[in-house]
Specification:
Blueprint (H helix, E strand, L loop, with lengths): L1 E8 L4 H14 L4 E5 L4 E6 L5 H10 L3 E9 L10
Antiparallel strand pairs: 1-3, 1-4, 2-3
Length: 83
């Protein structure tokens, strides 16, 4: 499992977060995805690392701008732990 964090510029509301979550789920096999406008990022948990170029492309097609992409091994936290 890998955790991918992508910077997303242009999100202003909860609907913006929903658009980002939806386009990522539609184009990639993910276990979890959570866009956060206050942090200007989306966090993706998946079996395989998403293609960075495709990730930037699909986010760009929604009108938002994808920036830096970081990938690291995903470590599941305790039963009630968050990301």
């Amino acid at each position: 499992m890998v955790k991918t964090t992508v910077a997303v510029d242009g999100m202003m509301c909860g609907m913006c977060e929903s658009h980002i979550n939806e386009v990522i789920r539609k184009n990639f096999k993910v276990k979890k995805v959570a866009a956060d406008r206050s942090k200007a990022q989306a966090v993706i948990v998946s079996e395989e690392t998403p293609d960075p170029e495709l990730l930037k492309k699909v986010i760009g097609e929604t009108g938002y701008t994808a920036g830096e992409i970081r990938t690291e091994p995903y470590e599941k936290k305790g039963l009630f732990g968050l990301w």
